[in-house]
Design brief:
The protein is of the alpha+beta class. The chain has 4 helices and 26 strands. The strands form 7 sheets. Strands 6, 7, 9, 10 and 11 form a 5-stranded antiparallel sheet that branches. The radius of gyration is 49 Å and the shape is elongated.
Length: 411
């Protein structure tokens, strides 16, 4: 867990004084201290040299941060507060500036440092990343992920804290890896103010283990740079002849419309062409092919004009407009007729070919010629069409007559 209290370091001073001008001696500050006043926050404090003669001159102080991030500035005050990741230590120096008319004179530097935070090498977390977003109610959830250090024992337990301005809080909900080590943290609610610009979020992760001292790790995030913007709202897409018209509202955010930029993802479902267009406003007009159907998605991000860009939002749900239509209906009809005619002719040709082959394979059997003439052709034919003699005798005379008449009429 995080140790409480503040660490104070008193620093030795260089006392070598260098004359800077006509008999004027500039002396360095005294009692220069560095104090850890909060997570990743250092208070630099010093006092004017009591032996310094002012002689109607202006005294200022030149402050130079050496590590972890180099920075130099001057101030009239005798104290300064800096936010920095302190896990690898902190180093700074200060000197007196004496301003007399157009002449500036300086003393020697006074330097001091804070040692690195204790812990075994390789046990700190790695690959720390965090993201925030703004809810409808204006709340700002925080989500962070990390990887265990390569040298961290398997029983290592990590604990995450965030600090925003003066508020510090430990993570309430962790997600564990397969070795039951905390590797993810979620704050459903934080004290982060969504409308602020370039405020810092401090993340501090320490840990504990029975086998090694776990070295803490700190990282600073610009709150705007890690914000994932919400999806654009109330998207309206219409297609009027060859004009595609799109309008939408800015995402949920305390920032104005001019602080956003958008990407417009357009796919021609007929040709398969895809394009992503960058747009700086919340409306859009584009000339398109009216015979095609399109799918459209939009996402948003803060632009650099108002603040740090942050992350792109998720893509909106896909919206479809237009209908796929033939480019030339007459051409399509003619093509269809040509294809149908060709298929019909091909089918007829195949049928004829099959019949021709069949006739070759199975030719008709010829009728044998009759070498002997039938001596009773008429009686033979009559016998085929009339009843037998027995049936004639039994049948009536009318039936016999009708048979004779029928025979005469057929032949």
């Amino acid at each position: 867990m995080m140790a409480s209290g503040m660490s104070v370091f008193l620093l030795f001073l260089w006392t070598t004084n260098t004359p800077q001008g006509a008999g004027v001696q500039v002396l360095p500050p005294v009692n220069f201290t560095l104090t850890v006043s909060a997570l990743a926050q250092v208070l630099l404090h010093w006092e004017p040299n009591p032996a310094q003669e002012q002689n109607n001159s202006t005294i200022r102080y030149d402050v130079k941060i050496l590590s972890p991030e180099p920075e130099e500035y001057d101030t009239r005050r005798t104290h300064s507060v800096r936010t920095a990741a302190l896990h690898n230590g902190f180093s700074a120096r200060v000197r007196t500036l004496l301003l007399q008319e157009d002449l500036q004179m300086s003393s020697d530097w006074v330097e001091g440092n804070l040692p690195p935070l204790p812990g075994a090498a390789g046990t700190s977390v790695t690959n720390l990343s965090c993201v925030t977003h703004v809810t409808i109610s204006g709340n700002v959830p925080l989500h962070c992920t990390w990887l265990p250090g390569q040298g961290a024992p398997e029983d290592t337990k990590y604990f995450l804290f965030y600090r925003y301005e003066t508020h510090t809080e430990e993570c309430p909900t962790y997600t564990k890896d397969k070795r039951s080590r905390n590797t993810e943290c979620r704050f459903s609610s934080t004290q982060i103010k969504p409308g602020e610009i370039d405020k810092l979020i401090v993340i501090h992760i320490n840990g504990s283990s029975k086998h090694a001292a776990i070295k803490p790790f700190q990282q600073l995030f610009n709150q705007n740079a890690i914000e994932k913007v919400n999806i654009p709202r109330n998207i309206s897409i219409s297609l009027e002849q060859n004009d595609l018209l799109a309008m939408w509202e800015k995402p949920i955010s305390p920032f104005h419309e001019e602080c956003f930029e958008y990407e417009f993802y357009l796919i021609n479902l007929k040709s398969g062409n895809k394009q992503i267009l960058k747009i700086s406003s919340n409306s859009f007009w584009l000339r398109v092919d009216a015979s095609s159907r399109y799918s459209i998605r939009i996402r948003a991000k803060h632009n650099h004009l108002c603040r740090a860009s942050g992350f792109w939002s998720d893509w909106s749900e896909t919206i479809y407009v237009g209908q796929n239509k033939p480019e030339n209906s007459i051409a399509w009809i003619l093509t269809l007729l040509c294809v149908s005619t060709s298929c019909t002719l091909l089918l007829v040709a195949i049928i004829c070919q099959i019949n021709h082959v069949w006739s070759k394979l199975f030719p008709p059997i010829p009728t044998p010629s009759n070498k002997f003439r039938d001596p009773f052709p008429i009686d033979y034919e009559r016998a085929r069409t009339c009843p037998s003699s027995t049936e004639t005798e039994v049948g009536s005379l009318a039936e016999g007559l009708s048979c004779s008449v029928l025979d005469d009429s057929v032949f």
